[in-house]
């Protein structure tokens, strides 16, 4: 049996490695549209933007490891079409790759604003090349505007403030992250920006950019102008499914797949990572989970399924974000529950919020600078513990 893995970020690369670790001996081809050997993406919005010497880029796979594992790695190869009937993938050069089984792990790309740009100085942050361009831009000590105060925008703002730059975040929601955390916790978490000297404009829609060739600022719908020499747009991500448009695969909102990651109607094709749309076994909802840890877990699960082993137990979604020297950790999906407990504050340097379901069982948690709280929540969730078991007899959230 042969495997064709499309996309060599964490999901695709870890699938290839896990297949070998679990004893798969067939041919494995790993296609990657970028020219770089697979690298880890979390540092792109953190370490790679920090002031100081150029940092090393953490690699997910090296030529030496690829040779050791007998992986056929093809860089700079962009998939443009798929014919499932013939089991053939077509690339931008017209080259065809046949497969017996395939893993689709092409991830997602940065969502664009519905605003004309084409100006120098307007950036997104999704790839190593993006981070390299931004690192060079920040060295000129520009005024910075960040459109979107989610984790990517927040981490970039933190890196820019760490260089002492003038930073303004522009957020469409009245409360940043409220769609994920709710108003109360979203307001608390986003206070980290103003505490560290960044400007924060909420309830704001970008109307247009200022400048003829180089961006000079951002004009908001109410007429406010935010001066900027560098603008970073971080308003979410779109699944990389365009190359599957004529394939017949179900790709509305992501690649639809079942419990075992097989694409609906196409049992020889698996989908994992940011673009996989499936029912989460612990959350009970159908969703794409765009987290680094989720990609790795799904890769190992597919490798186990293919080799006839028992897949690892599913885990609650987990994501972390490093901002202004603080680590924010989120377990579960807060939007599926109600805020039931909070303690501490961003200003104090430690914070925790717990969300419960309709049966008053903890189902999600947000914590800041508290690794023990994360471990405690996971343990409590596994054994079906109560809120009291987790936090004790304390005053509930307002």
UniProtKB/TrEMBL annotation:
Residues 3-299 form the FAD/NAD(P)-binding domain. The keyword Isomerase does not apply. One of its GO terms (cellular component) is cytoplasm. Its cofactor is FAD. It holds the Pfam family Pyr_redox_2. Keywords: FAD, Flavoprotein, Oxidoreductase. GO terms for molecular function: oxidoreductase activity, acting on NAD(P)H. SUPFAM superfamilies: FAD/NAD(P)-binding domain (SSF51905), FAD/NAD-linked reductases, dimerisation (C-terminal) domain (SSF55424). InterPro entries: FAD-oxidoreductase/Apoptosis (IPR050446), FAD/NAD-bd_sf (IPR036188), FAD/NAD-binding_dom (IPR023753), FAD/NAD-linked_Rdtase_dimer_sf (IPR016156), Reductase_C (IPR028202). Residues 318-384 form the Reductase C-terminal domain. This is NADPH-dependent 2,4-dienoyl-CoA reductase, sulfur reductase.
């Amino acid at each position: 049996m042969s495997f064709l893995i499309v996309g060599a970020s964490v999901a695709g690369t870890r699938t290839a490695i896990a297949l070998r670790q679990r004893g798969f001996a067939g041919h494995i081809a790993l296609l990657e549209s970028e020219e770089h050997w697979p690298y880890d993406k979390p540092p792109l919005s953190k370490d790679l933007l920090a002031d100081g010497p150029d940092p090393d880029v953490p690699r997910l796979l090296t030529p030496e490891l690829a040779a050791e594992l007998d992986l056929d790695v093809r860089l700079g190869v962009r998939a443009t079409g798929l014919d499932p009937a013939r089991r053939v993938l077509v690339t931008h050069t017209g080259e065809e790759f046949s497969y017996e089984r395939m893993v689709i792990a092409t991830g997602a790309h940065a969502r664009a604003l519905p605003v004309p740009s084409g100006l120098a100085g307007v950036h997104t942050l999704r790839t190593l090349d993006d981070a390299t361009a931004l690192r060079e831009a920040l060295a000129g000590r520009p005024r910075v505007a960040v459109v979107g105060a989610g984790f990517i925008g927040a981490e970039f703002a933190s890196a820019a403030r760490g260089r002492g730059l003038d930073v303004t975040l522009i957020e469409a929601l009245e409360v940043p992250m409220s769609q994920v955390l709710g108003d109360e916790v979203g307001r608390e978490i986003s206070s980290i920006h103003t505490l560290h000297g960044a400007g924060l404009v909420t309830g704001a829609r970008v109307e247009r950019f200022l400048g003829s060739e180089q961006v000079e600022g951002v004009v908001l719908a109410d007429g406010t102008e935010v001066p900027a020499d560098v603008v970073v747009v971080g308003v979410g991500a779109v699944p990389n499914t365009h190359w599957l448009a004529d394939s017949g695969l179900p790709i509305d909102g992501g690649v639809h797949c079942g419990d075992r990651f097989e694409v609906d109607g196409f049992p020889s094709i698996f989908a994992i990572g940011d673009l996989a749309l499936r029912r989460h076994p612990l959350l009970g909802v159908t969703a794409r989970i765009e987290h680094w840890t989720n990609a790795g877990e799904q890769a190992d699960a597919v490798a186990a399924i293919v080799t006839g082993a028992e897949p690892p137990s599913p885990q609650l979604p987990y994501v972390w974000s490093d901002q202004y020297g603080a680590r924010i950790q989120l377990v579960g999906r807060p939007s599926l529950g109600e805020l039931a407990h909070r303690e501490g504050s961003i200003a104090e340097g430690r914070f925790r919020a717990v969300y419960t379901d309709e049966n008053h069982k903890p189902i999600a948690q947000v914590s800041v600078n508290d690794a023990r709280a994360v471990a405690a929540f996971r343990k409590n969730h596994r054994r079906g513990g109560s809120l009291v078991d987790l936090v004790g007899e304390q005053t509930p959230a307002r």
